[in-house]
Write a structure and sequence with these properties.
The structure holds two protein chains of two kinds. By secondary structure, chain A is an alpha/beta fold. In chain A, 37% of the residues lie in helices and 18% in strands. The chains are: A alpha/beta, B mainly beta.
Chain lengths: 397, 146
Protein backbone atom coordinates (compact mmCIF):
# COMPACT_ATOMS: atom_id res chain seq x y z
CA UNK A 1 0.00 0.00 0.00
CA UNK A 2 1.50 3.32 -1.03
CA UNK A 3 2.26 6.16 1.37
CA UNK A 4 0.12 8.45 -0.71
CA UNK A 5 -3.01 6.33 -0.94
CA UNK A 6 -6.42 7.74 -0.07
CA UNK A 7 -9.73 5.87 0.00
CA UNK A 8 -12.61 6.31 -2.40
CA UNK A 9 -15.64 6.14 -0.11
CA UNK A 10 -18.30 7.04 -2.61
CA UNK A 11 -18.94 7.86 -6.24
CA UNK A 12 -22.01 9.20 -8.02
CA UNK A 13 -23.13 10.64 -11.32
CA UNK A 14 -25.95 12.49 -12.98
CA UNK A 15 -26.70 10.76 -16.29
CA UNK A 16 -25.12 12.34 -19.37
CA UNK A 17 -27.44 13.88 -21.94
CA UNK A 18 -28.51 17.15 -23.42
CA UNK A 19 -30.87 18.12 -20.65
CA UNK A 20 -30.52 21.88 -21.02
CA UNK A 21 -30.76 22.62 -17.31
CA UNK A 22 -28.39 24.51 -15.01
CA UNK A 23 -25.16 22.65 -14.31
CA UNK A 24 -25.61 23.10 -10.56
CA UNK A 25 -28.65 20.81 -10.64
CA UNK A 26 -26.58 18.02 -12.13
CA UNK A 27 -23.76 18.58 -9.67
CA UNK A 28 -26.16 18.32 -6.75
CA UNK A 29 -27.54 15.01 -7.98
CA UNK A 30 -24.03 13.58 -8.42
CA UNK A 31 -22.85 14.91 -5.03
CA UNK A 32 -25.87 13.49 -3.20
CA UNK A 33 -25.38 10.15 -4.93
CA UNK A 34 -21.69 10.02 -3.98
CA UNK A 35 -22.44 10.93 -0.36
CA UNK A 36 -25.14 8.30 -0.18
CA UNK A 37 -22.79 5.76 -1.72
CA UNK A 38 -20.24 6.66 0.98
CA UNK A 39 -22.83 6.43 3.74
CA UNK A 40 -21.99 9.97 4.81
CA UNK A 41 -23.91 13.16 5.46
CA UNK A 42 -23.07 16.41 3.72
CA UNK A 43 -22.09 17.82 7.12
CA UNK A 44 -19.37 15.14 7.38
CA UNK A 45 -17.52 16.70 4.43
CA UNK A 46 -14.52 18.76 5.53
CA UNK A 47 -13.32 20.01 2.15
CA UNK A 48 -15.10 20.70 -1.12
CA UNK A 49 -13.21 20.62 -4.39
CA UNK A 50 -15.02 21.83 -7.50
CA UNK A 51 -14.02 21.30 -11.12
CA UNK A 52 -14.90 24.49 -12.98
CA UNK A 53 -16.93 25.03 -16.12
CA UNK A 54 -16.15 28.09 -18.23
CA UNK A 55 -19.42 28.05 -20.18
CA UNK A 56 -21.82 28.84 -17.36
CA UNK A 57 -20.87 32.26 -16.07
CA UNK A 58 -19.39 33.19 -12.71
CA UNK A 59 -20.88 30.26 -10.74
CA UNK A 60 -18.93 27.96 -13.06
CA UNK A 61 -15.63 29.67 -12.23
CA UNK A 62 -16.17 29.13 -8.51
CA UNK A 63 -17.65 25.65 -8.77
CA UNK A 64 -16.48 24.52 -5.33
CA UNK A 65 -18.39 27.29 -3.58
CA UNK A 66 -21.32 27.00 -5.99
CA UNK A 67 -21.83 23.35 -5.08
CA UNK A 68 -21.21 24.03 -1.36
CA UNK A 69 -23.90 26.70 -1.38
CA UNK A 70 -26.33 24.49 -3.29
CA UNK A 71 -25.82 21.67 -0.78
CA UNK A 72 -26.32 24.18 2.07
CA UNK A 73 -23.48 26.21 3.56
CA UNK A 74 -21.84 24.19 6.32
CA UNK A 75 -18.50 25.98 6.58
CA UNK A 76 -16.20 23.52 4.78
CA UNK A 77 -13.20 25.11 3.02
CA UNK A 78 -13.35 25.02 -0.77
CA UNK A 79 -11.14 25.05 -3.83
CA UNK A 80 -12.10 25.41 -7.47
CA UNK A 81 -9.91 24.09 -10.26
CA UNK A 82 -9.83 24.71 -13.95
CA UNK A 83 -7.64 22.62 -16.22
CA UNK A 84 -9.89 22.18 -19.26
CA UNK A 85 -10.62 18.47 -19.81
CA UNK A 86 -8.27 17.68 -16.92
CA UNK A 87 -10.22 19.80 -14.40
CA UNK A 88 -11.69 16.77 -12.64
CA UNK A 89 -8.29 15.22 -12.00
CA UNK A 90 -6.89 18.54 -10.81
CA UNK A 91 -9.82 18.95 -8.40
CA UNK A 92 -9.35 15.35 -7.23
CA UNK A 93 -5.67 16.01 -6.64
CA UNK A 94 -6.43 19.16 -4.63
CA UNK A 95 -8.71 17.12 -2.38
CA UNK A 96 -6.18 14.32 -2.09
CA UNK A 97 -3.45 16.77 -1.06
CA UNK A 98 -5.63 18.16 1.72
CA UNK A 99 -6.20 14.65 3.06
CA UNK A 100 -2.58 13.56 2.74
CA UNK A 101 -1.42 16.75 4.46
CA UNK A 102 -3.67 15.84 7.39
CA UNK A 103 -5.72 19.00 6.93
CA UNK A 104 -8.97 17.07 6.57
CA UNK A 105 -10.28 13.50 6.61
CA UNK A 106 -13.16 13.65 4.13
CA UNK A 107 -13.40 15.60 0.89
CA UNK A 108 -16.08 15.88 -1.77
CA UNK A 109 -15.04 16.43 -5.41
CA UNK A 110 -17.69 17.55 -7.91
CA UNK A 111 -17.67 18.46 -11.59
CA UNK A 112 -20.70 19.34 -13.71
CA UNK A 113 -21.36 20.99 -17.04
CA UNK A 114 -24.06 22.24 -19.35
CA UNK A 115 -22.74 22.47 -22.90
CA UNK A 116 -24.00 24.21 -26.01
CA UNK A 117 -24.73 22.25 -29.17
CA UNK A 118 -22.02 21.77 -31.81
CA UNK A 119 -18.31 22.56 -31.77
CA UNK A 120 -16.84 23.78 -28.53
CA UNK A 121 -16.02 27.41 -29.31
CA UNK A 122 -13.75 29.87 -27.53
CA UNK A 123 -15.29 32.28 -25.06
CA UNK A 124 -16.82 35.37 -26.63
CA UNK A 125 -15.25 38.74 -27.38
CA UNK A 126 -12.38 40.07 -29.52
CA UNK A 127 -9.39 38.48 -27.86
CA UNK A 128 -6.37 38.88 -30.12
CA UNK A 129 -3.95 37.75 -27.43
CA UNK A 130 -5.70 34.45 -26.64
CA UNK A 131 -4.36 31.51 -28.67
CA UNK A 132 -7.65 29.66 -28.19
CA UNK A 133 -9.53 32.53 -29.85
CA UNK A 134 -6.88 33.05 -32.51
CA UNK A 135 -6.75 29.41 -33.66
CA UNK A 136 -10.45 29.60 -34.51
CA UNK A 137 -10.10 33.03 -36.09
CA UNK A 138 -6.97 32.56 -38.19
CA UNK A 139 -7.01 28.83 -38.95
CA UNK A 140 -10.53 27.59 -38.40
CA UNK A 141 -8.78 25.03 -36.23
CA UNK A 142 -11.64 23.43 -34.34
CA UNK A 143 -10.94 20.66 -31.83
CA UNK A 144 -11.69 17.98 -34.46
CA UNK A 145 -9.07 19.62 -36.69
CA UNK A 146 -6.37 18.50 -34.28
CA UNK A 147 -8.01 15.05 -33.95
CA UNK A 148 -7.99 14.80 -37.74
CA UNK A 149 -4.27 15.59 -37.85
CA UNK A 150 -3.50 12.81 -35.35
CA UNK A 151 -5.75 10.33 -37.16
CA UNK A 152 -4.22 11.05 -40.57
CA UNK A 153 -0.74 10.66 -39.14
CA UNK A 154 -1.65 7.19 -37.79
CA UNK A 155 -2.85 6.26 -41.26
CA UNK A 156 0.29 7.43 -43.02
CA UNK A 157 2.79 6.22 -40.43
CA UNK A 158 1.20 2.95 -39.37
CA UNK A 159 -1.20 2.09 -42.18
CA UNK A 160 -4.26 2.56 -39.98
CA UNK A 161 -7.57 2.59 -41.86
CA UNK A 162 -10.96 4.21 -41.27
CA UNK A 163 -12.23 0.68 -40.56
CA UNK A 164 -9.74 0.40 -37.68
CA UNK A 165 -11.05 3.66 -36.26
CA UNK A 166 -14.64 2.47 -36.67
CA UNK A 167 -13.85 -0.68 -34.68
CA UNK A 168 -13.11 1.50 -31.66
CA UNK A 169 -16.55 3.06 -31.89
CA UNK A 170 -18.26 -0.29 -32.40
CA UNK A 171 -16.51 -1.62 -29.29
CA UNK A 172 -17.31 1.39 -27.12
CA UNK A 173 -20.93 1.48 -28.27
CA UNK A 174 -21.28 -2.18 -27.29
CA UNK A 175 -19.68 -1.51 -23.90
CA UNK A 176 -21.97 1.36 -23.06
CA UNK A 177 -25.16 -0.32 -24.22
CA UNK A 178 -26.50 -0.93 -20.71
CA UNK A 179 -24.68 1.83 -18.83
CA UNK A 180 -27.47 3.82 -17.14
CA UNK A 181 -25.33 6.99 -17.08
CA UNK A 182 -24.42 6.89 -20.78
CA UNK A 183 -26.15 9.26 -23.19
CA UNK A 184 -25.91 7.07 -26.29
CA UNK A 185 -26.99 3.47 -25.70
CA UNK A 186 -27.23 2.07 -29.17
CA UNK A 187 -25.16 -0.47 -31.04
CA UNK A 188 -23.52 0.88 -34.17
CA UNK A 189 -21.94 -0.86 -37.15
CA UNK A 190 -18.72 -0.11 -38.99
CA UNK A 191 -20.79 0.64 -42.10
CA UNK A 192 -22.90 3.22 -40.27
CA UNK A 193 -19.78 4.93 -38.96
CA UNK A 194 -18.06 4.98 -42.34
CA UNK A 195 -21.23 6.32 -43.98
CA UNK A 196 -21.59 9.20 -41.52
CA UNK A 197 -20.61 12.67 -42.75
CA UNK A 198 -16.93 13.63 -42.81
CA UNK A 199 -16.11 16.25 -40.18
CA UNK A 200 -12.31 16.55 -40.19
CA UNK A 201 -11.03 14.10 -42.74
CA UNK A 202 -10.38 11.19 -42.15
CA UNK A 203 -12.70 11.44 -39.15
CA UNK A 204 -16.44 11.20 -39.57
CA UNK A 205 -19.25 12.34 -37.34
CA UNK A 206 -19.45 8.99 -35.54
CA UNK A 207 -15.68 8.97 -34.96
CA UNK A 208 -15.89 12.14 -32.88
CA UNK A 209 -17.43 12.55 -29.46
CA UNK A 210 -20.33 14.89 -28.85
CA UNK A 211 -20.57 17.49 -26.09
CA UNK A 212 -22.93 16.65 -23.25
CA UNK A 213 -24.45 17.78 -19.99
CA UNK A 214 -23.56 15.65 -16.99
CA UNK A 215 -22.02 15.51 -13.54
CA UNK A 216 -19.82 13.23 -11.50
CA UNK A 217 -18.73 13.30 -7.87
CA UNK A 218 -16.25 11.42 -5.71
CA UNK A 219 -15.94 11.26 -1.91
CA UNK A 220 -12.34 10.76 -0.80
CA UNK A 221 -11.15 10.02 2.73
CA UNK A 222 -7.98 9.19 4.58
CA UNK A 223 -7.30 5.49 5.04
CA UNK A 224 -7.53 6.03 8.82
CA UNK A 225 -10.97 7.53 8.47
CA UNK A 226 -12.06 4.63 6.28
CA UNK A 227 -10.81 2.17 8.91
CA UNK A 228 -12.60 4.00 11.72
CA UNK A 229 -15.76 3.62 9.69
CA UNK A 230 -15.22 -0.13 9.32
CA UNK A 231 -14.22 0.07 5.66
CA UNK A 232 -11.27 -2.28 5.87
CA UNK A 233 -10.61 -2.72 2.18
CA UNK A 234 -11.75 0.38 0.32
CA UNK A 235 -10.91 1.21 -3.27
CA UNK A 236 -7.78 3.35 -3.10
CA UNK A 237 -6.40 6.13 -5.22
CA UNK A 238 -2.81 4.99 -5.77
CA UNK A 239 -1.74 7.82 -8.07
CA UNK A 240 -2.90 11.09 -9.56
CA UNK A 241 -0.80 12.55 -12.35
CA UNK A 242 -1.39 16.18 -13.29
CA UNK A 243 1.94 16.80 -15.01
CA UNK A 244 2.65 19.57 -17.51
CA UNK A 245 4.79 19.00 -20.63
CA UNK A 246 8.57 19.09 -20.63
CA UNK A 247 10.28 21.57 -22.97
CA UNK A 248 10.40 21.23 -25.88
CA UNK A 249 6.93 19.77 -26.38
CA UNK A 250 7.27 18.63 -29.98
CA UNK A 251 3.71 17.40 -30.62
CA UNK A 252 1.25 19.96 -31.98
CA UNK A 253 -1.55 20.33 -29.44
CA UNK A 254 -4.71 22.32 -28.91
CA UNK A 255 -4.85 25.30 -28.89
CA UNK A 256 -1.34 25.93 -30.19
CA UNK A 257 -0.25 27.28 -33.58
CA UNK A 258 3.11 25.57 -33.37
CA UNK A 259 5.13 23.17 -31.28
CA UNK A 260 8.11 24.18 -29.23
CA UNK A 261 11.38 24.24 -31.13
CA UNK A 262 13.80 21.36 -30.68
CA UNK A 263 16.58 23.30 -32.40
CA UNK A 264 18.52 23.85 -29.19
CA UNK A 265 17.08 21.68 -26.41
CA UNK A 266 16.56 18.10 -27.62
CA UNK A 267 13.06 16.64 -27.50
CA UNK A 268 12.47 14.68 -24.28
CA UNK A 269 12.51 10.88 -24.52
CA UNK A 270 8.81 10.68 -23.64
CA UNK A 271 6.10 12.70 -25.38
CA UNK A 272 3.81 14.70 -23.14
CA UNK A 273 1.04 12.09 -23.37
CA UNK A 274 3.49 9.29 -22.58
CA UNK A 275 4.74 11.24 -19.57
CA UNK A 276 1.25 11.61 -18.08
CA UNK A 277 0.95 7.83 -17.73
CA UNK A 278 4.59 7.33 -16.75
CA UNK A 279 4.18 9.68 -13.81
CA UNK A 280 1.05 7.83 -12.67
CA UNK A 281 2.73 4.42 -12.96
CA UNK A 282 5.78 5.67 -11.05
CA UNK A 283 3.67 6.99 -8.22
CA UNK A 284 1.56 3.84 -7.97
CA UNK A 285 4.54 1.52 -8.32
CA UNK A 286 2.68 -0.28 -11.10
CA UNK A 287 3.10 -0.76 -14.83
CA UNK A 288 0.84 -1.41 -17.81
CA UNK A 289 0.94 -5.17 -17.20
CA UNK A 290 -0.65 -4.67 -13.79
CA UNK A 291 -3.79 -3.04 -15.21
CA UNK A 292 -7.08 -4.88 -15.57
CA UNK A 293 -8.82 -2.03 -17.37
CA UNK A 294 -8.35 1.54 -18.55
CA UNK A 295 -10.66 4.47 -19.19
CA UNK A 296 -9.02 6.62 -21.88
CA UNK A 297 -10.19 9.89 -23.39
CA UNK A 298 -11.65 8.90 -26.75
CA UNK A 299 -12.38 12.39 -28.06
CA UNK A 300 -12.02 10.57 -31.36
CA UNK A 301 -11.81 6.89 -32.23
CA UNK A 302 -8.28 7.32 -33.56
CA UNK A 303 -7.19 9.11 -30.40
CA UNK A 304 -8.19 6.06 -28.34
CA UNK A 305 -5.62 4.12 -30.37
CA UNK A 306 -2.97 6.76 -29.60
CA UNK A 307 -3.73 6.35 -25.89
CA UNK A 308 -3.14 2.56 -26.05
CA UNK A 309 0.42 3.36 -26.98
CA UNK A 310 0.77 6.32 -24.60
CA UNK A 311 -0.20 4.19 -21.60
CA UNK A 312 2.05 1.34 -22.69
CA UNK A 313 -0.52 -1.30 -23.65
CA UNK A 314 1.45 -1.82 -26.88
CA UNK A 315 4.23 -0.28 -28.92
CA UNK A 316 3.85 2.48 -31.53
CA UNK A 317 1.78 1.31 -34.48
CA UNK A 318 0.40 -1.76 -32.68
CA UNK A 319 -2.85 -0.28 -31.38
CA UNK A 320 -4.87 -1.23 -34.46
CA UNK A 321 -4.00 -4.86 -33.91
CA UNK A 322 -5.06 -4.60 -30.28
CA UNK A 323 -8.55 -3.36 -31.09
CA UNK A 324 -8.94 -5.73 -34.05
CA UNK A 325 -7.96 -8.73 -31.89
CA UNK A 326 -10.55 -7.79 -29.28
CA UNK A 327 -7.88 -7.31 -26.62
CA UNK A 328 -9.50 -4.06 -25.51
CA UNK A 329 -13.05 -5.40 -25.52
CA UNK A 330 -14.60 -6.55 -22.22
CA UNK A 331 -13.47 -10.15 -21.90
CA UNK A 332 -10.20 -9.37 -23.69
CA UNK A 333 -6.71 -8.99 -22.26
CA UNK A 334 -7.07 -5.36 -21.21
CA UNK A 335 -10.55 -3.87 -21.66
CA UNK A 336 -10.50 -0.17 -22.53
CA UNK A 337 -13.46 2.10 -21.88
CA UNK A 338 -15.80 -0.50 -20.40
CA UNK A 339 -18.09 2.45 -19.53
CA UNK A 340 -18.58 3.09 -23.24
CA UNK A 341 -16.18 6.04 -23.06
CA UNK A 342 -16.79 9.42 -24.61
CA UNK A 343 -18.29 7.60 -27.59
CA UNK A 344 -21.32 6.78 -25.41
CA UNK A 345 -21.17 9.75 -23.06
CA UNK A 346 -20.13 12.77 -25.08
CA UNK A 347 -17.90 15.18 -23.25
CA UNK A 348 -19.02 17.12 -20.18
CA UNK A 349 -15.66 18.78 -19.66
CA UNK A 350 -15.24 19.26 -15.88
CA UNK A 351 -17.15 16.07 -15.05
CA UNK A 352 -15.43 13.74 -17.49
CA UNK A 353 -12.22 12.89 -15.64
CA UNK A 354 -14.32 12.25 -12.52
CA UNK A 355 -16.70 10.04 -14.51
CA UNK A 356 -13.67 7.95 -15.47
CA UNK A 357 -12.86 7.57 -11.76
CA UNK A 358 -16.47 6.58 -11.00
CA UNK A 359 -16.34 3.86 -13.64
CA UNK A 360 -13.05 2.38 -12.47
CA UNK A 361 -14.34 2.42 -8.87
CA UNK A 362 -17.47 0.49 -9.84
CA UNK A 363 -15.37 -1.95 -11.83
CA UNK A 364 -12.97 -2.57 -8.94
CA UNK A 365 -15.89 -3.09 -6.55
CA UNK A 366 -17.51 -5.55 -8.94
CA UNK A 367 -20.59 -3.35 -9.27
CA UNK A 368 -20.47 -2.64 -13.00
CA UNK A 369 -23.29 -5.00 -13.96
CA UNK A 370 -23.32 -6.27 -17.54
CA UNK A 371 -20.15 -4.34 -18.41
CA UNK A 372 -18.17 -5.84 -15.50
CA UNK A 373 -14.51 -6.64 -16.13
CA UNK A 374 -13.91 -9.86 -14.20
CA UNK A 375 -11.72 -9.74 -11.09
CA UNK A 376 -10.44 -6.26 -11.75
CA UNK A 377 -7.93 -5.10 -9.14
CA UNK A 378 -6.26 -2.12 -10.82
CA UNK A 379 -7.46 0.44 -13.33
CA UNK A 380 -6.09 3.59 -14.92
CA UNK A 381 -7.80 6.70 -16.24
CA UNK A 382 -6.08 9.03 -18.67
CA UNK A 383 -6.89 12.30 -20.29
CA UNK A 384 -5.31 15.57 -21.30
CA UNK A 385 -6.56 19.12 -20.90
CA UNK A 386 -5.63 21.73 -23.48
CA UNK A 387 -2.99 24.31 -22.49
CA UNK A 388 -0.78 21.55 -21.05
CA UNK A 389 -2.71 19.60 -18.42
CA UNK A 390 -2.05 15.95 -17.74
CA UNK A 391 -4.74 13.87 -16.08
CA UNK A 392 -4.33 10.29 -14.97
CA UNK A 393 -5.60 8.41 -11.94
CA UNK A 394 -4.70 4.87 -10.89
CA UNK A 395 -7.17 3.10 -8.63
CA UNK A 396 -6.55 -0.22 -6.90
CA UNK A 397 -8.26 -2.55 -4.46
CA UNK B 1 -12.37 42.57 -55.34
CA UNK B 2 -9.42 44.12 -57.14
CA UNK B 3 -10.01 47.49 -55.50
CA UNK B 4 -10.16 46.11 -51.98
CA UNK B 5 -7.29 46.86 -49.63
CA UNK B 6 -5.26 43.82 -48.70
CA UNK B 7 -4.59 43.75 -44.98
CA UNK B 8 -3.15 41.06 -42.70
CA UNK B 9 -5.76 39.25 -40.59
CA UNK B 10 -3.35 39.57 -37.70
CA UNK B 11 -0.61 42.19 -37.21
CA UNK B 12 3.04 41.21 -37.14
CA UNK B 13 2.77 37.45 -37.63
CA UNK B 14 4.00 37.37 -41.24
CA UNK B 15 5.44 39.56 -43.97
CA UNK B 16 3.32 40.73 -46.88
CA UNK B 17 5.89 40.62 -49.70
CA UNK B 18 6.05 38.33 -52.73
CA UNK B 19 7.89 35.64 -50.78
CA UNK B 20 6.07 35.89 -47.48
CA UNK B 21 7.61 34.59 -44.29
CA UNK B 22 6.18 33.82 -40.89
CA UNK B 23 7.72 36.05 -38.24
CA UNK B 24 8.89 34.26 -35.15
CA UNK B 25 11.51 35.18 -32.68
CA UNK B 26 14.74 33.66 -31.49
CA UNK B 27 16.50 33.80 -28.16
CA UNK B 28 19.72 35.81 -28.48
CA UNK B 29 21.35 33.63 -25.83
CA UNK B 30 20.40 30.00 -26.63
CA UNK B 31 19.02 30.30 -30.16
CA UNK B 32 15.60 28.70 -29.52
CA UNK B 33 12.85 29.69 -31.95
CA UNK B 34 9.30 30.68 -31.06
CA UNK B 35 6.13 31.08 -33.11
CA UNK B 36 4.00 33.05 -32.60
CA UNK B 37 6.43 35.55 -31.13
CA UNK B 38 6.67 35.66 -27.37
CA UNK B 39 6.84 38.96 -25.55
CA UNK B 40 9.78 38.43 -23.25
CA UNK B 41 12.03 35.80 -21.70
CA UNK B 42 13.16 32.65 -23.45
CA UNK B 43 10.92 29.67 -22.67
CA UNK B 44 13.73 27.13 -22.73
CA UNK B 45 13.92 26.28 -19.00
CA UNK B 46 17.65 25.76 -19.38
CA UNK B 47 18.19 29.33 -20.57
CA UNK B 48 17.86 32.62 -18.73
CA UNK B 49 17.89 34.74 -21.88
CA UNK B 50 15.62 37.77 -21.89
CA UNK B 51 16.43 39.24 -25.30
CA UNK B 52 14.67 37.90 -28.35
CA UNK B 53 15.14 38.95 -31.96
CA UNK B 54 12.40 38.88 -34.56
CA UNK B 55 13.34 36.41 -37.28
CA UNK B 56 11.64 35.25 -40.46
CA UNK B 57 11.05 31.49 -40.35
CA UNK B 58 11.89 29.12 -43.21
CA UNK B 59 9.31 29.46 -45.96
CA UNK B 60 9.47 25.79 -46.89
CA UNK B 61 8.75 22.71 -44.85
CA UNK B 62 7.34 19.21 -45.02
CA UNK B 63 3.87 18.09 -44.04
CA UNK B 64 3.68 16.37 -40.62
CA UNK B 65 -0.03 15.75 -41.03
CA UNK B 66 -3.13 17.32 -42.56
CA UNK B 67 -6.91 17.28 -42.41
CA UNK B 68 -9.83 18.72 -44.35
CA UNK B 69 -12.71 20.33 -42.49
CA UNK B 70 -16.15 19.75 -43.96
CA UNK B 71 -18.14 21.76 -41.42
CA UNK B 72 -18.00 25.52 -40.89
CA UNK B 73 -16.25 26.36 -37.62
CA UNK B 74 -18.03 28.58 -35.08
CA UNK B 75 -17.14 32.27 -34.71
CA UNK B 76 -14.73 33.97 -34.42
CA UNK B 77 -13.93 32.12 -37.68
CA UNK B 78 -15.50 34.01 -40.56
CA UNK B 79 -16.77 31.26 -42.82
CA UNK B 80 -17.33 31.92 -46.51
CA UNK B 81 -20.87 31.58 -47.80
CA UNK B 82 -21.53 29.16 -49.23
CA UNK B 83 -19.12 27.28 -47.01
CA UNK B 84 -16.36 25.39 -48.81
CA UNK B 85 -14.26 22.69 -47.14
CA UNK B 86 -10.71 23.77 -46.34
CA UNK B 87 -7.60 21.89 -45.34
CA UNK B 88 -5.22 22.53 -42.47
CA UNK B 89 -1.68 21.21 -42.50
CA UNK B 90 0.90 20.85 -39.74
CA UNK B 91 4.25 21.56 -41.35
CA UNK B 92 7.72 20.73 -40.04
CA UNK B 93 10.41 23.37 -40.49
CA UNK B 94 13.74 21.59 -40.48
CA UNK B 95 15.98 24.47 -39.45
CA UNK B 96 13.74 25.69 -36.65
CA UNK B 97 12.80 22.11 -35.67
CA UNK B 98 9.21 22.98 -35.00
CA UNK B 99 5.82 22.15 -36.48
CA UNK B 100 3.52 25.01 -37.44
CA UNK B 101 -0.12 24.94 -38.55
CA UNK B 102 -1.60 26.73 -41.50
CA UNK B 103 -4.52 26.44 -43.86
CA UNK B 104 -3.72 24.84 -47.18
CA UNK B 105 -4.02 26.96 -50.31
CA UNK B 106 -7.37 26.20 -51.94
CA UNK B 107 -5.64 25.47 -55.25
CA UNK B 108 -4.24 22.22 -53.83
CA UNK B 109 -6.44 19.16 -54.21
CA UNK B 110 -6.61 17.65 -50.68
CA UNK B 111 -6.32 14.20 -52.27
CA UNK B 112 -2.74 15.03 -53.29
CA UNK B 113 -1.62 15.91 -49.76
CA UNK B 114 0.63 13.43 -47.97
CA UNK B 115 2.92 13.27 -44.98
CA UNK B 116 6.41 14.33 -46.00
CA UNK B 117 5.21 16.47 -48.93
CA UNK B 118 7.18 19.68 -49.40
CA UNK B 119 5.14 22.86 -49.14
CA UNK B 120 5.87 26.56 -49.33
CA UNK B 121 4.41 29.58 -47.58
CA UNK B 122 2.01 31.81 -49.45
CA UNK B 123 -0.68 34.33 -48.57
CA UNK B 124 -4.36 33.79 -49.14
CA UNK B 125 -7.72 35.29 -48.32
CA UNK B 126 -9.08 34.39 -44.92
CA UNK B 127 -12.24 36.50 -45.31
CA UNK B 128 -13.42 39.76 -46.81
CA UNK B 129 -15.73 42.59 -45.97
CA UNK B 130 -16.95 45.43 -48.21
CA UNK B 131 -13.69 47.37 -48.08
CA UNK B 132 -10.94 44.96 -47.24
CA UNK B 133 -9.51 41.55 -47.94
CA UNK B 134 -7.98 39.97 -44.84
CA UNK B 135 -5.06 37.71 -45.68
CA UNK B 136 -3.37 34.97 -43.71
CA UNK B 137 -0.47 32.59 -44.31
CA UNK B 138 -1.24 29.37 -46.13
CA UNK B 139 0.73 26.42 -47.42
CA UNK B 140 0.98 25.78 -51.14
CA UNK B 141 2.63 23.08 -53.21
CA UNK B 142 6.12 23.50 -54.64
CA UNK B 143 6.03 20.69 -57.22
CA UNK B 144 5.40 22.92 -60.26
CA UNK B 145 8.07 25.46 -59.52
CA UNK B 146 11.60 25.53 -60.77
Amino acid sequence: MGDHDVAVLGVGMHPWGKWGRNFVEYGLVAARAALQDAGLEWRDVEFVSGADTIRNGYPGFVAGATFAQALGWQGAPVASSYAACASGATALNAARAQILAGLCDVALVVGADTTPKGFLAPTAGERGDDPDWLRFRLLGATNPTYFGLYARRRMELFGATPADFAKVKVKNAAHGLTNPNARYRKAVTEDEIMASPIVSDPLRLLDICATSDGAAAVVLASLDYARRHSLTNPIRVAAVSTVTPSYPNTVIEMPNFATDSAAVAPAPAATFRDSIAQQAYAEAGLGPDDLDLAEVYDLSTALELDWYENIGLCGPGEAEKLVNDGATTIGGRIPVNPSGGLACFGEAVPAQALAQVCEVTWQLRGEAGERQVQDATAGLTINQGLFGHGSSVILVR
Amino acid sequence: MANKTRVPAVEGWFTLDDEPRLLGNRCRKCGSYFFPKIASECRNPGCDGTELDEVPLSNRGTIWSYTTNHYAPPPPYVAAEPFAPYSVAAVELSQEKLVVLGQVDAAIDPATLHVGMEVELTLGTLYEDDEQEYVVWKWKGVANRG
